[in-house]
Design goal:
The protein is α/β, with parallel strands linked by helices and about 200 residues long. It contains 5 helices and 8 strands; from the N terminus they run ββαββαββαβαβα.
């Protein structure tokens, strides 16, 4: 069985993973994540070496005050900045409006809104909080690509900020401490999957 592929937007988010981990750094946003992961998986499929699982790790903004600190496992993700309900009627086929990644039961769970907007204002935060507890910029894209390649996917998101007016000034400083928490969560996740 092949090892999991860890997918992160920036190198700092994966900085504390165990040495030798299979890591793909995609860049920030849904398009870089989708392109990078699709190219990598297409090459690996051609070589007969697809990963056993994709584990997307990264930071996320908290949209609700009851989502405070730590790492959350995502149980549902949707793309908040693309209204696609009418697409199936036009094309006859579309990606799901939301994905439900696998969860281990080892972490608190949250719903995730993904979009190409860096959320840093209370009005957007409040609007997105009606449908999700966390917000990021890659999770939906990672799930969409994993879905197309029929590879199980897990999303682990560490709360780095409150997706409000204080976010822009504090995100960069939050990445490294968040990466430490993500690495610990990965260790627990691997323990859970190897014991199952």
């Amino acid at each position: 069985m092949t090892a999991p592929l860890f997918v992160a937007a920036v190198a700092g988010e994966a900085a504390h993973l165990p040495e030798g981990s299979d890591v793909l750094i995609t860049g920030i946003g849904t398009l870089p994540a989708a392109i990078s992961l699709t190219l990598t998986l297409a090459e690996r499929r051609a070589a007969g070496n697809l990963p056993s699982r994709i584990i997307n790790i990264g930071t996320a903004g908290a949209l609700r005050d009851d989502h405070t600190v730590g790492v959350y496992e995502i149980d549902r993700v949707h793309k908040h900045d693309f209204q696609s309900a009418e697409i199936p009627g036009v094309t006859g086929e579309a990606l799901p409006l939301a994905f439900e990644p696998e969860t281990s039961g080892r972490f608190p769970t949250a719903q995730l809104a993904t979009g190409d907007t860096f959320v840093e204002d209370s009005a957007t935060r409040d609007r997105l909080a009606q449908d999700a507890g966390l917000v990021d910029m890659e999770g939906y894209a990672v799930c969409a690509v994993a879905y197309r390649f029929n590879i199980p996917v897990t999303l682990l998101k560490q709360i780095s900020d409150n997706a409000d007016e204080e976010t822009a000034s504090g995100w960069a400083e939050a990445v490294d401490p968040g990466a430490v928490q993500l690495a610990e969560a990965v260790r627990l996740l691997v323990e859970t999957t190897t014991q199952a």
